[in-house]
Amino acid sequence: MEYNTQRKPLALGEYGRYVQEMVEHTMSIEDREERNKAAQAIIQLMTVMNPSYKGNDELINKLWDDLYIMSKFQLDVDSPYPKPEPAVNIQAEKIEYPKGDFKYRHYGKSIENLIEVAKAIEDKDEQQALTQLIAHLMKRSYLNYNRDSVNEEMIIDQLKEMSGGLLKLNDNFRFQHTNDILGSQPRNSSKSSSKSRSKRKWKK
Fold this sequence. Notes:
Blueprint: H1 17-27, H2 32-49, H3 57-70, H4 109-120, H5 124-145, H6 152-162, H7 178-183, H8 190-199
Helix pairs in contact: 1-2, 1-5, 2-3, 2-5, 4-5, 5-6
């Protein structure tokens, strides 16, 4: 299990770790068109998290600024607004998250919130882009819960269940490789790392 104290600080904590991880995943997408779709999906999510921003061009511009800040100004996408300079200090408004019980605790309430956002998106391309980001995050969260193995088909089934069958991944969708995910996450100790490596059976 990975603890918050082991994780690197968030660029904008108000958006939460899942949005930060979505940004980082988007930066790793090589295809520019797919990267643009992923960025648009994140902006769609950020707009839902800040409902007062919807329809306000100046505030939507601010969301794009926040997106660049979370990427440390390294995200290369086709934004409708000028890319801000690193010296600009823009702070996001605090967001209140709902509390309550949820079935798959290892995914966290944020995943359920993201699924609800994705279900409400009418544009199919934007919905698919966010659905794919959610699937990647579900795999990351599952590996925090169990580093030794991961069943990708189970994750797909759980995504379908959690969305009430409304979110489906394209047939050509592929998860990020387990090795790449674990390679970017900290270990509890060198001893546990060595022990885990000796027992781990890598699965895609």
